[in-house]
Amino acid sequence: MLDFDPDSTESIMFSAVMPRAYGGNGITVYIHAALTSDTNNAHEVRWDVAWERIGDQQQDIDNDSFAAANSVSMPVPSTSGLVDIVNVTFTDGADMDKET
C-alpha cells in the first residue's frame, strides 16, 4: 500500500525482472486506488507508467533510458475503502523500451 498526500505531487519507482517466459506482445498494468478516510471529496489522480530495459550489459545503470510514459487519470471514489481500478496498456517494442 502507498499513502500519497492528496495536496502534493509524489512518485514511486518499482523495480522487477520480467519473467524469462515473457514472450512479448505488450503488457497491461492494473492500478487500484482508494481513499483511506471519508472526506466526501473525490480526488482525481494521474498515473505515469514507464519501462526501462536494463538487460545483460545493455544499459549503464548510472543513467536511465525509460521509454516515454503512458499516462492515465482516474477519479478516486470519495468513500473510504471503495476501490477504483484503471489500466495502462503498453504495446511491445519501443513502448516498453525493449529492443525490437
Question: Main attributes?
Answer:
mainly beta, two-stranded antiparallel ribbon, 100 residues, 28% strand
Distance between the termini: 34 Å
The pLDDT mean sits at 78
Strand order, largest beta sheet? 1-4
The total count of strands amounts to 4
* Strand-pairing-aware structural class: mainly beta
Q: In this structure, how is the largest beta sheet organized?
A: 2 strands, antiparallel
Radius of gyration: 16 Å
Descriptive notes:
The chain is mainly beta. It has a domain at 30-96. Helices cover 0% and strands 28% of the residues. The chain is built from no helices and 4 strands. The chain has strands spanning 27-33, 43-49, 70-76, 84-90. The strands form 2 sheets. Strands 1-4 form a two-stranded antiparallel ribbon. The mean pLDDT is 78.
Topology:
Layout: E1 27-33, E2 43-49, E3 70-76, E4 84-90
Antiparallel strand pairs: 1-4, 2-3
Structure in a nutshell:
Helix content is 0%, strand content 28%. The chain has 100 residues and is mainly beta. The chain has a domain at 30-96.
